[in-house]
Amino acid sequence: MSVLDLAPVVPVVVVEDVATAVPMAQALVAGGLPAIEVTLRTSCALEAVARIAAEVPGAVVGAGTVRTPAEVTAAVDAGARFLVSPGATPALLDAMAGSGVPYLPGAATASEVMALAERGLTEVKFFPAVPAGGVAYLKALGGPLPEVRFCPTGGIRPQTAPEFLALPNVGCVGGTWLTPAGALAAGDYTRIEKLAAEAAALRG
Ligand SMILES: O=C(O)C(=O)C[C@H](O)[C@H](O)COP(=O)(O)O
């Protein structure tokens, strides 16, 4: 099954303290969001991926902010079950294609999406979704490129997620709102589970 179909929302998480990784992932899964994108933006990100992969059986943990072939290898070695990138380069795409796991390369223009489609890639992260043009832009891309499905990410909030999810070319949306830094710092996993449950219910 595609990552785009696991849940309406993929939490994009920035793990600053690796001790929060497992309880955070448990809360997200309990709330109904199994696909979790751990961004490789912090020094403990790979360890967070490894711990979630080992200790949270209901989670489908992936790595985000994957920008280089070396990061592809490191993420898969850590246990990432999918890869997400903000954009795409030929070297990165070659590495992702050889990784053995599903991947969502990033694109923001018709030409970028067409270059990915030329490679047979029809599941794409639309980034940065809101600054690049939001719902209207994505709807317009769906005219000439109807076979491509997107996971828009960047600037999406619970209030705006339903407008994206209503588009036929959107599989799911990504966002950071599920795991507020304050909730993680305070160990408030109940709040994270509640945010996840609300997000999981966004599309019935
Ligand atoms: O790290 C990456 O690879 C990214 O693509 C960036 C994330 O998609 C945004 O950080 C989403 O952040 P929000 O706009 O707060 O939902």
Distance between the termini: 18 Å
**Strand line-up of the largest beta sheet:** 3-2-1-9
User: What is the general shape?
Assistant: globular
Q: What is the strand content?
A: 15-25%
> What is the CATH superfamily label?
Aldolase class I
Gyration radius, in Å:
16 Å
Enumerate the distinct ligands: 2-keto 3 deoxy 6 phospho gluconate
The domain tally reads 1
> How many helical stretches?
10
Question: What attributes characterize this protein structure?
Answer:
10 helices, lyase, 4-stranded parallel β-sheet, KDPG/KHG_AS_2, globular, binds 2-keto 3 deoxy 6 phospho gluconate, 204 residues, TIM Barrel, carbohydrate metabolism, alpha/beta
In short:
This protein has 204 residues and is α/β, with parallel strands linked by helices. 42% of the residues lie in helices and 16% in strands.
Would you write up a description of this structure?
This protein is of the alpha/beta class. The chain has 10 helices and 9 strands. Strands 3-2-1-9 form a 4-stranded parallel β-sheet. Helix 1 (21-31) runs parallel beside helix 10 and helix 3 packs parallel to helix 4 (90-97). The longest helix is centred in the C-terminal third of the chain and has 12 residues, at 189-200. The radius of gyration is 16 Å and the shape is globular. 47% of the residues are buried. The mean pLDDT is 97. 2-keto 3 deoxy 6 phospho gluconate binds at residues 12, 39, 41, 64-65, 86, 127, 153-156, 174-176.
